[in-house]
Design a protein that fits this description.
It contains 19 helices and 37 strands. It is α+β, with helices and mostly antiparallel strands.
Amino acid sequence: MVTENNSFYPQPIFEGAEKRLEVDFEPAPLSGVHEVMDVECHGAAQPHSDSEDSQSSSSATAVAGSLRAIKHGEWNKLLEPAQCSIVSWESNASCDAYLLSESSLFVYDRSLVLKTCGRTKILDAIPGILERALDGQRSSLTVARARYSRSAFKCPEQQPVPHTDFALEVSALNGLFGHLEGGGHAYVLGDQCTDALWHVYTAGAPPKGRGSTSTLEVCMTGLDPKYCEYFACKSDSNSPAQRACLRLECGLAKLLGKQDRVDDYVFDPCGYSMNAIRDERLVTIHITPEEGFSYASVEISNLGPKDTLDASEFVGHVAALFGPQRVYVAATGDFLPAQYGGFGLAGGYSSVSCADQRVAGYGSCSFRAFATGQGGPLARGSGALAGLKGSAREPSSPVTVLSKERGASVEFSSSTSEGNDGTAAIRDPSDVDSLFIKRVSAETIESSCCVEEFAAAKIKQLSLEDTFYVFDLGNVYRRMLTWKRLLPRVRPFYAVKCNPDPGVLSTLAALGTGFDCASEVELQSVLSLGVRPDSVVYANACKRPSDLRHMKHTGTLLTTFDSESELYKIKQYHPEASCVLRIRADDPNARCFLGNKYGAEQREVEPLFAKAAELGLRVVGVSFHVGSGASGPEAFRMAISLARGCFDAASRLGINTLNLLDIGGGFSGGSGDGREALESVAAVINESLDEHFGADLGTLRVIAEPGRYFSEGACTLFTCVYGKRQRENRQEYWLTDGLYGSMNCVIYDHAELKPRPLWIRSANSSATEGHPTTLFGPTCDGLDTVLKEVTMPKMENGDWVVFPEMGAYTISAASNFNGISACDPQIFYVVSKRE
């Protein structure tokens, strides 16, 4: 970042890489009984006291001898030797978090973390800090252990001594901490030739009674220049509203997730720092955006053993956001975050260095370095995470929506029993199960009717002015209950293409669904949730060779075919696959017709079975798809009858391996708990299964591929009115989303939109008189007209238009035409207790 005190930095290059020092204290011997005492919390005259994330006055409780008894004015004096000062601060019950002119300081009762960048003299400040902490009259503490770390400097010769050389730093650190138990230890991890290095010094032993924790640090150089443009200071950059908007627009809000306190600052002329705290955990982000020496760091510390951070997913998300040329990742602690070891980084990155080291007093340190071989920054939105173990696409939420063990289904209370497929067989609780609510990291609302009330509060709280969604995972849960009640013999395999949002996928995975995938990215996205490959059907009857190779690599077996050409491909690239013949069975009234493209005709069935047998391929079943959004239940009766004929044809050819019937998709969505959408269709399916497969149902596995049934009604779209015009008696409004974004469903999915107003700015929000209205999307194409001649009340700029039931084939087919981002809208997750 660039500080307002340029006298410290006469050089033309600003060194973004931080020096980081962590010190743990414990009560000094013979210090007596340490009682709990009230400590004045820093509050008055905060630079950010008007922030929506700040509280100008509060109180914290700290133990006797707490470092938090040191007030901000005294900290400023203690930091002077390091040549940095406090810009702003925030506190919660566990921590005081200070934004500095150069990075950050975090103070706990008996530990501190100090990070400084540029040409700061961090070690010059330590003697004064230690003297104050060890003052027997005021603190009665003693040092237990210390850890210093940093990456390689871009210009080490411009650093002040001793930071010009790690050996000099070690000598200085030994002078401060070498007397601790076990003495000092120094380590350099990485590749000396490429300068991909991580320097670590440790001394001492863990304080008594301190639990196991770990720290994950991501450091990046050569940031995407376009992304860096976000962090140029403007006249109002540090107003609360602008800081909130910046966090949303640049994607950092998603990276943070839910926090107790957030404090950030945009430096003049450019640069950015952020601290966020939740309980004892901290997140700190620092960005130096200047061209030629851009740098950013993201740190998460005080992770406990029960924290479920997937390091590979998190690092991939960070890299996709910042688009760096180089990425350095260091994890240190008594345990390491899940999935840390051995992960790779896709999107043109290659591994530069990989090192693991036991470090005295702190457990282990693992260091990974990656560089893009393309000579430039990684392009966000270009499949950057496609090969990453944690995720196959940039998640719309930085946190795992369901806090569960990977691959484990949610265990329901007395309302569940074990099904034949090993998932939870759900009975009929009247409301959302309390265990489900506890496992979902989302805000709880009383009913699905409260979604708009929730959204209005978010708009005002965060000063929102762009498209966002509210996803109600409680609705997904209730629809699963309805499915289990009405179709107990049919296991749903959710169609990922309908809505690939990680929140929806992780919810359904935890509820025990399988998944219908049709591409490598879709398959990887569900496998990353811990879904077993045998819970996936690759329901694309015409696959690319790369798709088949990826299936084989991941151990995914079940896939469809409808031609000889596909059988030859399967034989060449994945001969172990379990093949399912897809037949044509159309509902002529379906919303989207599929039979013109996929499905074997009846005359082709026996020749295809014979060819599969000739090639030595294993055929295990028959599938069909009556069409997306089918409207006639009788289409399923006809299709199941045709499938029965296929089973009989296979038997005549001596093929006795068929044990699967896939009845495909075509299930309606709509609102509510799903009963209205599913009841009549389920009755026909159950009757037809009994009629045509009754004798085989004990051994027959029946699956389906619903998409919109689970996601359509759960997702509500909110678009802001940012332009208006009146022509004669017609109102015209410009919205922040349109046909090139989520409204593409009007063209491709034949959706019927149901807009309604959400008044935020209008003085008279009770207006009900309707007027002929046209709604335009945000692009410059005249085709981008969402609705014409719809009747709506009058609205003002700053009001919103709500579109319910927008969870099916909306985000998944959006584009960024005209440079207007529509592929990654802000998403808020809620769990409604009831409809």
